[in-house]
Amino acid sequence: MQISSKLPNVGITIFTKMSKMALEYGAINLSQGFPDFDVAPDLIDRVHHYMKSGMNQYAPMPGVPALREAIANKTEQCYGYKPNVDTEITVTCGAIEAIHSSISALVSAGEEVIIMDPAYDAYQPIIELQGAKAVRVPLTSAYAINWQSVAEAVTPQTKMILINSPHNPSGAIISEEDLAALEEITAGTEILVLSDEVYEHIVFDGEMHQSVFKSEKLRKRCVVTASFGKTFHATGWRMGYLIAPEVLTTEIRKVHQFNTFTIHTPTQYALADYLQNPATYEAVAKMYQQKRDYFLKAMKPSKFKPIPSNGTYFQLMDYSAISDKGDIEFAEWLTKEVGVAAIPTSVFYADGRDNKVLRFCFAKHEDTLKAAAEKLCAL
């Protein structure tokens, strides 16, 4: 059978590959971004409660009203803007479905989407599935956005600019000045903005997450995607949502309804209850900062050089003082021979740029981080 692939250059993701290798070689898995500690017991209890209460059938396609109301209240508390519960909030199967449905609904063949380089590996394939083109703009050496380069990349075909803060893989965050620059570039145009804010509650060192919701001009043209899985360390639940103006939401829901249609009902009710206490998400940054700092301290005797992480639960490490192997080869060697799995960052670049940098996930128990650091410090 002859199949004409829509994604001929795409294989199994590096995350699947490295997690599989970690399991095969018994390595400590600091590669794929998932926590190894439990979800809060009271949140699990709420899910169980609603399962036993009979909330096990289809939820409304946009999401359970109580959860959408809770999301609206949280957004107002965090960013001073309350989206319309009925017309602007949609509960999705993780943030990736929110991103996929948004791009599918709003971007057409022949159009262009500007993304930053390095970028999360899902963005470009989703864009290409629409027959559109991903235009990649390199970040600076400090993983900041070069807005002059973004402005120069805009063409009459530009339909969307996609930003991600806190940024995966680097942990860099955008500033108020970044939002102002994005406002200026998009002013007077029909360009949409897709803001991937899945790590919104994991920002460190007293910094504040600069959501596009803080900009009245941007939120009129923006889709924001978010993740309960990241915030409440329940990545396997695949619970996310998107917020967008009604004119955009209407189109996105057309795709969403024929994609997943609706999302796990008892978990939606449970999250609606859980969000009533803002401490459930406000405490997340402190917890992860402690883990980041613990990992950095444990790694201090090593020859790895840390690159500052201002958010997410990832830490980049330069290994150039240890080996001249390419980062994919070194990551595989590290998994097989040392017993620690990490992600090579070249996979996030369009040109496979090899900076001799690996990404480590520190969303782990301290015992896990300690054991990994001991192995890495021995190099």
UniProtKB/TrEMBL annotation:
SUPFAM superfamilies from the UniProt entry: PLP-dependent transferases
Cofactors that this protein relies on: pyridoxal 5'-phosphate
Pfam families: Aminotran_1_2
Keyword Transferase: yes
Highest taxon of source: Bacteria
Any one cellular-component term (Gene Ontology): cytoplasm
Keywords, sorted A to Z: Aminotransferase, Pyridoxal phosphate, Transferase
Domain Aminotransferase class I/classII large stretches: 28-376
Gene Ontology molecular-function annotations: kynurenine-oxoglutarate transaminase activity; pyridoxal phosphate binding
Similarity comment: family membership: Belongs to the class-I pyridoxal-phosphate-dependent aminotransferase family.
Matching PANTHER family: FI04487P
Protein name per its UniProtKB record: 2-keto-4-methylthiobutyrate aminotransferase apoenzyme
Origin species: Roseivirga pacifica
